[in-house]
Specification:
- The chain has 718 residues and is α+β, with helices and mostly antiparallel strands.
- Among the domains are: 2-159, no CATH class; 234-296, ATP-grasp fold, A domain (Dna Ligase, domain 1), CATH 3.30.1490; 483-714, UDP-N-acetylmuramoyl-L-alanine:D-glutamate ligase.
- Helix content is 35%, strand content 25%.
- It has an eleven-stranded mixed β-sheet with strand order 21-20-19-22-18-23-24-25-26-27-28, with helices on both faces. Strands 15-14-13-16-17 form a five-stranded antiparallel β-sheet, sandwiched between helices.
- Strand 7 and strand 8 (203-204) form a beta hairpin.
- One of its GO terms (molecular function) is cyanophycin synthetase activity (L-aspartate-adding).
- Keywords: ATP-binding, Ligase, Nucleotide-binding.
- This is Cyanophycin synthase.
- It comes from Collimonas arenae.
Length: 718
């Protein structure tokens, strides 16, 4: 029976044997289909490309457009096809992947399929949908591709980072600043340990709760701004429809009526001129907040200025929304055909403009009533009907903002206390000072949306994510702490603990996740095997941690991936000649090298790989390292060490029972092995190698020779 069976799915959340990025690895069994490549299945290729015509964009191994379709025609197997279909379903759902691989295993018909996974749950769903789609194409059965894509798109919208948060994370990635998603929402950690910062959409760990409370109280905000010389419209807090009318008479018509504590422009009624309009607006505004403000109406367009760290990052202008009657359609129909049909409008987070829904928009209903219409009205052909005076049509005007206007907006953000603020102001001409046109700042908002600046209706997008990253991290700061990763067959736990001890002696608050447990500042907080993703992440999210050491077993690399994207020091202790992991289809030491090399692949260009010179499989990894290599070995006569020193590079070895540090021909005595308890208690050569590996790692971390000596002479595994 022809079938594709998914045997196992693993989420590799960090660097792994496939790629540096998070990946989903699926093991599949194609059974009899091993004997039926794509060019032997009648009609299969036509059905597949008919359902997914965009597969033509996949370059595949040919390296050119149409490469994958050519592979289909030449004949390829379901594992490879499943990889590409999964990626394409993710692309069509709005979560681009890009990376994918399919490889056969030692078991006939069993393949490993790996695809980029920006969100594990979405990629899992895409994989299962792809499996069903491929099988339907093989069996010539119907398959609802649009429905599957719609389901995946809904998952992307509800589960993936929102566009505002995503643009900040992408900007961090450009700066090589690592990131962690801390919740299912938009709370993200940028950087590691003590160097980390946190964001929640456009709020940061510098956004104070007091400032947020002030910004949500519109009356208090106005009072503070006015006291500091920021132009604001005159206004009063009112407690009844009658008071609203009295306040309007005092201020002078027309006026604005709005909630004192609502956000995103909800319940804001502008250009009101009659008592009936004002009293109706009061009642509707009160539904959106706890109290109501009446203030002077300022003619002109609303503008949103994004202030980040005291500087103008972007500015957008909103313009009125209107429809043109055709003489046969109702206003509600005109709204749907002329406004909501805009592809930029929608309910998904990626849509920069909102749908106009009459049953949810009291402001629109009031505006229509002021013109003598309802949503069911059919105006005469050619008549222009105003729908919203500020219809969230965002036009980029960043380059037009007058310096004094930018300064006023920056001052408003500082007065409220927000490090990132959306400052709303009304002015006829943003390129002129506010004082010349009686313009004013009407609101200061915490957690402003960024989408209007990323996808303006007109004008060029602004790099607001980059502005926020530059605010959080000074130039040259990548948010990283020293990270040491230790991998290999034997000795990982001992080496990890000894390195952590030396870092501790050098004055660092050290986090350690290893086979013996989880440690913070040498205090064991959890016993048992903690050489895993969850424990390692606990280290990196700990804001006290100044340096981290992680033991990475082959099992962890294969089943979870590394918790960090790059490290300062990567140590490989050894690879045993008989090493294998048949449960992962890893049959021998040669294949194990592909696993262990992950630790070397992630060493920073400014970092160091510490490699065992006596183990050829390990020593050969030197060419894979982007940074420096320090070899260690008991015997200084090892050819690998000798050649390394000839190139004036670093090595650690034993000569006459003394541990030596060498750079080229220059040798420095570190300690006699008889003074090292770990060696003295066990004369086995592997313990000497463990100490040498830890010494080399400490040297790579620029720990002083005296402290390295003290570390190995005082270290106790108990």
């Amino acid at each position: 029976m022809k079938n594709i069976e998914i045997l196992r799915i693993m989420s590799l959340r960090g660097p792994n044997i496939w790629t540096y990025r998070s990946t989903l690895e699926a093991w599949i069994d194609i059974g009899e289909l091993e004997d039926f490549p794509s060019n032997t299945l009648p009609g299969f290729n036509q059905r597949l490309t008919g359902w997914l015509p965009s597969l033509i964009e996949h370059r595949c191994s040919y390296g050119e457009r149409g490469g994958f379709v050519q592979r289909l025609q030449d004949g390829t197997w379901p594992g490879h096809i499943l990889e590409h279909v999964t990626l394409e379903l993710q692309n069509l759902a709005g979560m681009p992947g890009g990376f994918g691989k399919a490889r056969s295993t030692s078991v006939r018909g069993v393949y490993k399929v790996a695809v980029r996974a920006r969100h594990e749950e979405v990629t899992r769903a895409a994989l299962h949908a792809a499996r069903d789609l491929v099988m339907a194409a093989i069996e010539d059965k119907p398959f609802d591709v649009p429905a599957s894509i719609a389901t995946l798109r809904a998952m992307v919208d509800s589960r993936c980072l929102g566009p505002s948060t995503a643009c900040i994370v992408e900007a961090a990635d450009e700066r090589r600043i690592p990131s962690f998603r801390l919740t299912d929402g938009n709370l993200v950690q940028l950087g590691h340990g003590i160097r980390q910062r946190r964001i929640w959409t456009a709020e940061t760990d510098q956004t104070s709760a007091i400032a947020e409370s002030i910004s949500s109280d519109k009356d208090l905000t106005k009072t503070l701004l006015q006291a500091c010389g920021v132009p604001v419209p005159e206004g009063q807090l009112v407690e009844s429809p009658e008071e609203a009318w009295e306040a309007a008479e005092d201020i002078g018509l027309p006026v604005v009526v709005k909630p004192s504590d609502a956000n995103h422009g909800r319940g804001v009624f502008i250009d009101l001129n009659t008592r009936a309009e004002i009293e109706t607006a009061y009642k509707l505004a009160l539904e959106e907040g706890s109290s109501v403000i009446v203030e002077r109406f300022i003619p002109g367009n609303e503008h949103r200025l994004l202030i980040v760290g005291g500087r103008l990052a972007a500015a957008a202008r909103g313009e009125p929304l209107s429809v043109i009657a055709d003489g046969t359609s109702t206003i509600e129909q005109l709204i749907n055909s002329q406004i909501n049909s805009d592809p930029r409008r929608g309910e998904l987070e990626e849509c920069p403009l909102s749908l106009v829904l009459l049953d949810q928009e009291p402001v629109v209903r009031v505006e229509l009533e002021r013109q003598g219409f309802t949503g069911a009205s059919i105006p005469p052909a050619g008549k222009q009907i105003l729908i919203q005076r500020n219809g969230n049509v965002s036009i980029d005007v960043t380059d037009l903002v007058h310096p004094s206007v930018a300064a006023a907006a920056s001052l408003a953000a500082r007065v409220v206390g927000l490090d990132i603020a959306g400052v709303d102001l009304v002015a006829g001409d943003i390129s002129r000072p506010l004082e010349e046109q009686r313009g004013a700042i009407v609101e200061v908002n915490a957690g402003p949306g960024l989408l209007m600046h990323l996808k303006p209706a007109e004008g060029r997008p602004r790099p607001v994510g980059r502005a926020i990253i530059e605010h959080l991290f000074a130039a040259g700061d990548n948010g990283r702490i020293p990270i040491v990763g230790v991998s290999g067959t034997h000795g990982k736990t001992t080496v990890s603990r000894l390195i952590a001890w030396q870092l501790h002696l050098s004055g660092n608050h050290v986090g350690l996740a290893c086979g013996d447990g989880l440690y913070f500042a040498q205090r064991q907080v959890e016993k048992g095997d903690c050489a895993n993703w969850e424990s390692a992440q606990r280290v990196l999210i700990n804001r006290a941690v100044e340096a981290a050491v992680f033991e990475n077993s082959h099992d962890t690399i294969l089943s979870e991936g590394l918790v960090y994207d790059r490290c300062q020091v990567g140590v490989v202790t050894n690879i045993a000649a008989n090493d294998s992991l048949p449960q992962y289809y890893i049959g021998d030491a040669e294949e194990m090298v592909k696993v262990t090399r992950t630790q070397v692949d992630v060493v920073l260009p400014t970092g160091v790989a510490v490699l065992n010179a006596a183990d050829k499989l390990v020593a050969d990894m030197a060419s894979l390292c982007d940074g420096e290599v320090i070899f260690f070995g008991i015997n200084p006569a090892l050819p690998v060490i000798a050649e390394h020193l000839e190139k004036k590079k670093r090595a650690v070895f034993v000569r006459n029972d003394q541990i030596m540090l060498a750079i080229g021909k220059d040798e420095m005595l570190l300690a006699d092995i008889t003074t090292v308890p770990l060696i003295a208690r066990s004369k086995d050569s592997f313990q000497i190698e463990n100490v040498l590996a830890a010494v080399a790692a400490a040297w790579a971390l620029d720990i002083s020779h005296d402290l390295i000596r003290a570390g190995i002479e005082t270290f106790d595994m108990a």
